[in-house]
Amino acid sequence: MRELVIVHNPDPDSRLPYLIRLPLGETGLVLRAGGTWPREKAIYCFPAGPSEWPLDPDVVERVPVKSCVRRGAAIDLVLDRARENRSQIVFTKARGRDAIFWQTARVRKQARPNVTTPTARAGGIAALPIVVDSGERYAYRFTHQQVEVTRKRLACGDYGVEVAGRLHASVERKSLADLVSSLLNTRLKYQLTELSTLPHAAVVVEDRYSQVFKLDHVRPAIIADGVAELQVAFPSVPIVFGETRQLTEEWTYRFLAAAYTAADHPPVREAPPIDAARPGEAGSQVHVREPALDPSTAEVRAWARANGLAVPDKGRLRQEVWEAYRQATGRTSTRGALIR
């Protein structure tokens, strides 16, 4: 009788606690596995030779198999039982390396949100200059976005944009496993401390927030509390759960584009405060402090065109354009990075 056999992995150094044997070929296909059935998420597997199968196995489960057929890069497995009977073992690549995942149709549907990311330019920027940290492994390529990517060492974060030669915004990317480990060893706190010194920063996690409560090797409440406490301590650095790698890459692109655009269009300031003596006091007077208003980019762009300077229709203006405007009009700016 053809069977799926699941036993405990006798290797104490292996991070995959189970061995599974599929009825394929004469000796069967043996894989190390991280679980006994993909109920909530895909199970990572690793190829194992027949010699790894123990002589006296500690059997966890033995199930008759109706069908076990390899079709291309996948093995379709149908078990002879009423529930949890259909699954697929997929041979694929993850971050450039060969990988094997054991999944069901339900898990596959959950892992792939039925969305198509937009192709429109973020902030109308023709080519967003994104700096990727040189130490980032398996970095986002932004192949579907309009960007110019350069690699160099960043002071903090994995992806950033620079304004006037200085890091203006940065995004730290994490897998769920990296989030958990960096939270437990306090490395995440130090990373947030560095990110909070920037005008704009964020942490993106390539998973759902719900997966925090499905962790096996650590109490979920510890991680949930830790994330909440860090958000209270560093409110200027949001921790965003982006669901999938594709969506977190898109979120990173849009966030950095918004921060880059904001550097050229600072927020409007509130009305200036009023200094006044108390009512009824002799010689009471009202003094209004005049605000130091920045010239808008549109204003400088119009001035430049009127004076024969070439400027783009959208996006940031060159430093020399701002300098020429300052010298011609005598107006100063609170944005020291743009007008000195």
Please provide the count of β strands. 16
* Alpha-carbon Rg, integer: 29 Å
Roughly how many Å apart are the termini? 82 Å
Helical content stands at 10-25%
Low-confidence stretches: 276-280, 286-292, 334-340
Strand share of the residues? 25-35%
Mean pLDDT, all residues:
84
Supply the key terms.
single chain, 340 residues, 29% strand
Can you describe this structure in just a few lines?
This protein has helices spanning 105-111, 176-184, 187-195, 220-233, 245-264, 297-306, 319-329; strands at 3-8, 18-22, 29-33, 43-48, 59-71, 74-79, 86-94, 97-103, 128-133, 147-152, 159-163, 166-174, 200-205, 239-241, 274-276, 286-288. The protein is an alpha+beta fold and 340 residues long.
Topology:
Blueprint lengths: L2 E6 L9 E5 L6 E5 L9 E6 L10 E13 L2 E6 L6 E9 L2 E7 L1 H7 L16 E6 L13 E6 L6 E5 L2 E9 L1 H9 L2 H9 L4 E6 L14 H14 L5 E3 L3 H20 L9 E3 L9 E3 L8 H10 L12 H11 L11
Parallel strand pairs: 9-10, 12-13, 13-14
Antiparallel strand pairs: 1-2, 1-5, 2-3, 3-4, 4-8, 5-6, 6-7, 7-8, 9-11, 11-12, 15-16
